[in-house]
Every structure is written in C-alpha cells, then in structure tokens.
Amino acid sequence: MISLRKTVTELDRLEELHRSAVNCFSAALRSSGQHAVELEACEAAHFRAQLEALREQLQADATARQLESVQSGFESELKQYWEKTRAQIQRLRKDVQAAAAAVEAFAGSVSESEVLLEHGLKRELQQLNKTAASEDIQEIRGAIREATATIGTSVDQMRTSNQLAIAQLKDEIRLLHQEVQAARRAKADPTPPAAKGDRSIDELIRQNTSFSVLLVVVRNFDGLRSCYSASVIASAIRDFQMRFDNILPPQSIVRRWNENQFAAILKTPPASAMKMSSEVIQKLSGPFVQNEQGAAHSVVFTPNAGVIEFRPGSDPEKFQTKLKQLAEALAQ
Asked: What does pTM read for this prediction?
C-alpha cells in the first residue's frame, strides 16, 4: 500500500514537472519572439509568426517526440533568423563604410578643388600685375588672353563643384522630407478611434442594449509599410479585413477605425467574444500572399486582440474611456 502511494505521488510529481517544462518552453518561445532584434520589420514579423506556430503545438499532454519536434523547429528558426540578421548587419556595416568613404571623398574633393582654384586665381592675378608693368602691347594682350582662359576654366570648375554640393544637399533634404512625411503619417490621426466614436456603437448605447467590441490592432503595420509597396499593403489589408469578417458570426458588424485598427461589434456573451478573440489572433496571423508585377509577396501581420463589454445602464463616457485605453494597450 505504501509502495502504491509512493508510485502515485511520484507520478503526480512527474506530471507536474511535465506541465512546468511545457509552460517554460512555451514562455521561452514567446520571449524569443518578443525580444528578437528587429532590423527588418517583415523578417521579424515572419520569425515571430513561426515561433507562435511552434508554441501552439505545445499542449499540456505533449509527448516527448512532440517536444523534440518543437525544439528542433525552434533551433532551425533561431539559426535561420540569426544568419539573416548577421547578413543584414554585415550589409549595414558595408553600406555605412561605403557611405563614409563617399562622403569623405566628396568633402576632400570639394576642399581640394577650392584650394587649387584659389591658388590658380592668385597666380593669374600675380601674372596680370606683372604684365601691367610691361610696355609690350603684344605681351599684354597674350597675358590677358591666357588669364581670361584660365579664369574661365576656374569658374566652370567652381560651378561644377557647387552643383555637386547642391545635389548632395538636395538628396539630404529629400531624405529629411521623407522622414518628416512618415512622421506626419504616423501622427496624422493621433486620436484613438474609441475617442472618435462609431455610429453603430452610439446607436447601441442609445438603445441601452448589451454588446461587446472585439478590437484588433496590427502592431507591425508601420514596419510592413516600409517593406512592401502601398498597393501590396492595401491589398493585404483588404484580405485581412475580409478574413476577419469571415471568422465572425453573420450578424457581426466589422469596422476599420484607422489604418491599423479594426473592430467587430458583437451581440454575443463576453465569454464567447473572449474565446473568439483567440481564434481571430490565430487565423489573422497567417500569411497573406499578394501578387504584384508577377512577384509574390507574403505579408505577415502581427495582430493583437481584446474585448470590452457594454452592459445596460453603464456610463457611456466610461465605456469610451475604457475602449480608448484598450486600443492604446493593444498597440504596445
């Protein structure tokens, strides 16, 4: 009897260790994706999606073979991402070195040409001053012609140098304009959609009826926009919203509140909405393949979802505040 109790206790301990190992492995996969070095947003998004797919394979009753399969996949993904990141860093180093060498060469050529031109002009002025003391008209005319030609050549060289400097400045200004425009786009609508309100939500609040809002935020939208063209992103977003709509019950109302936030107004119980949010994240994390000019692009979004409930008799302003706070939290 005592031996049987020891065996049961040992089995319970082993089961607890198994659950702890699975939970720790799952947490390690999640942390690896969250803290991955992000040099290119699209590569990081793909890496996180692959780790999330591996994490979903970890169940509480996972066998040793399944754990080994997940470990093998994790090591493979980690190695591939490390190799890609290392190659990107090497390319960045080469680009920085090339840019530094180009700037140094440009600055050196400009300063060198200015010094040479200055010396040349001074030399011609000295020659003209000497010629001014001559009484030979032919000598004076010849010296003037030579000085005029030299000064003309110097002026052309100065104009060319200035044009190069101006072209360089124009490139710098163009890059600054692009950065400013990107910042303006990011801040074009700083007011969260929850603060602006939605007619459907306002109408349900006026009816004092119970409903839930399933909010989805695409956290890597800005990074994807820097990786793909506007047409590819627009097409992928349309497919994203269509897939989101197909996941939900037929009576649901889907809205795109801004470029990276989507909301579904549900009349289902909050528990069902919370369960649905997990399914939404899983299905919307899959790749959206887009074709542009014969090339296929696999766009992988990183969605985050949350649910907030409105109950009859609730304060509409507090509900809007909570909805705004949820949108801000999901964007992190």
From this structure: 0.45
Scanning 187-229, the segments in alpha helix (DSSP H) are: 193-196, 199-206, 221-227
Four-residue CA torsion sign, 179, 181, 186, 187: positive
- Options 3.20.110.10, 3.30.70.270, 3.30.930.10, 3.30.450.20; CATH of 193-330: 3.30.70.270
Q: Six-digit token pair at 85?
A: 């990141």
Task: Compute the CA torsion angle 80, 81, 87, 90 (nearest 10 deg).
Answer: -150
Residue ranges in the chain whose pLDDT is less than 70: 1-8, 10-14, 18, 39, 60-61, 92-93, 95-122, 124-145, 147-149, 151-152, 154-198
On whether the CB atoms of residues 113 and 157 are closer than 8 A, the answer is yes
d(CA 264, CA 213): 6
Identify the three-state secondary structure at position 290. strand
Alpha-carbon distance values, 83 to 37, 51, 72, 77, 86 (Å): 12, 16, 17, 10, 5
Cβ-contact 217, 330 below 8 angstroms = yes
Q: What is the pLDDT of residues 145-192, one digit of tens each?
A: 676 667 667 666 666 666 666 666 566 566 555 555 555 444 444 444
